[in-house]
Amino acid sequence: MKKTLLILILSIFTFSYSQENTFYTSAYQTLDNMLLDKQQYSFKEAVFSVEDAYYQGKLDQEEFNGKIKFFANFCKTIMNNRKLDYSEKDAEKVSKYSSIFSLMSETTPVIRNNDTIKFKPFQYDFEDVFGHQEYSNLFVSKLLNTQKGNCNSMPYLYKILAEELGITANLALAPNHIYIKHNIKSIGWYNTELTSGIFPQDSWLMASGFIHLNAIQNGVFMKALNNKESLALLLVDLGNAYNRSFPDNDGSFPLQCAERAIKVYPFLANALLLQAETHKKQFQKLMKEQNTEDIETALNNPKAKELFDLMNKEYTHIHEIGYRSMPEDMYLDWLVSLKTERAKYEDTRMK
Questions:
Q1: What pLDDT, on the 0 to 100 scale, is given for residue 126?
Q2: Do the Cβ atoms of 105 and 194 come closer than 8 Å?
Q3: pTM of the prediction?
Q4: Quick one: which of 180, 37, 46, 31 has its CA closest to 105?
Q5: Can you tell me the distance from the alpha carbon of 147 to that of 129, in angstroms, rounded to the nearest whole number?
Q6: What is the pLDDT at residue 120?
Q7: Which candidate, 92, 65, 255, places its Cα nearest to that of 157?
Q8: Radius of gyration over every alpha carbon of the chain, rounded to an integer in angstroms
Q9: Could you give the maximum distance between any two Cα atoms of the chain, in Å?
């Protein structure tokens, strides 16, 4: 009787774990299908699939899409009620970029029943910026619900809204950071920073002190990501979300996400780090199984030796391509500097 009960409990646990994994494998398949067939591409759907996997299928897609549709229509209203002083052939595209920026970064007057209501912009949320306490604080769904976000959710939403309006937006990376890059006929490339509502020069990015020349040359930082590379970024998000959902996992799923992302974007530091950190975790697990804290003793195990050599090779590669990590407190100071030193870093071409 006891044996039968134990088998039943183990079966229930295994089934439950399998069901939980299903949400992640489904999200992975969604992203992989988009990478294989551009006709299936939708950044909105890709973002939703990652966040829904973390919520174990409990995220309301109709509500998610409805809020995005509302904000996309708001952008259209902004466009219909103003005219930009811009006469190049890409004026319509620029008008759409401008409307999204206004929605997200500026107080917008709205006339309703002869009353003027001021629609407040999205705000940067300084609480749990990196999602340490709750991973969902990085999510677009959280931003849609609260109008407070960070350098993950805000540029993601911007890209989603751009695609809803029939245009594209390029994500770009900096240490611990994501922003938007655009290319327009009048001035070429320029940066859009949503966390502070400013168009910063590249000098602001370089001012962080953590962008190595090799990182720029290799496209680690400051590169305008195409749609496939943006999906690769979401694959890393998916792997990290899985680690938060199942901290004691064997590493196979995060590695699958990292390896697929690296195949798409070989210099995606976030993916390379996920890969190296997963191998490090696997090595530490082997040490624990051997009941030793001595690395030399652990290396007597061929599998441990293989993992140790692999992760060292991976960390060396990450450093060689120019990636440097920025301490979190320094990141926040650097982010705030864009507002406190606005005159120094603002792109005057956008005025």
A1: 87
A2: yes
A3: 0.92
A4: 180
A5: 14
A6: 80
A7: 65
A8: 22
A9: 81
HEC readout, the chain: CHHHHHHHHHHHHHHHHHHHHHHHHHHHHHHHHHHHCHHHCCHHHHHHHHHHHHCCCCCCHHHHHHHHHHHHHHHHHHHHCCCCCCCCCCHHHHHHHHHHHHHHHCCEEEEECCEEEEECCCEECCCCCCCCCCHHHHCHHHHHHHCEECCCHHHHHHHHHHHHCCCCCEEEEECCEEEEEEEECCCEEEEEECCCCECECHHHHHCCCCCCHHHHHCCCCCCCCCHHHHHHHHHHHHHHHHHHHCCCCCCHHHHHHHHHHHHHCCCCHHHHHHHHHHHHHHHHHHHHHCCCCCHHHHCCCHHHHHHHHHHHHHHHHHHHCCCCCCCHHHHHHHHHHHHHCHHHHECHHHC
Tell me if 338 sits within 8 A of 179, measured CB to CB: no
Give residue 8's pLDDT: 43
**The token pair that represents 332 in the structure block:** 């926040």
- Nearest residue to 100 (alpha-carbon basis) of 49, 168, 47, 146: 168
Token reading at 152 = 């993950």
| Residue of 171, 190, 196 lying closest to 47 (CA atoms) | 171
Which pLDDT score, from 0 to 100, does residue 106 have?
Answer: 87
Task: Report phi then psi at 144, rounded to 5.
Answer: -65, -35
The whole-number pLDDT of residue 4 equals 47
Would you state the pLDDT for residue 292? 86
Q: What is the pLDDT of residue 43?
A: 98
Alpha-carbon span 94 to 184, nearest angstrom:
7
Low-confidence ranges of the chain (pLDDT < 70): 1-20, 110-118, 351
Tell me whether residue 212 is exposed, middle or buried, using C-beta atoms within 10 angstroms of its C-beta: 0 to 12, 13 to 18, 19 or more: middle
What are the pLDDT digits (tens) for 251-279?
999 999 999 999 999 999 999 999 999 99
pLDDT for the residue numbered 2: 45
How many angstroms separate the Cα of 101 from the Cα of each of 83, 104, 121, 137, 195? 15, 5, 9, 22, 11
Q: How far apart are CA 280 and CA 271, in angstroms?
A: 14
Which pLDDT does position 117 carry in this prediction?
59
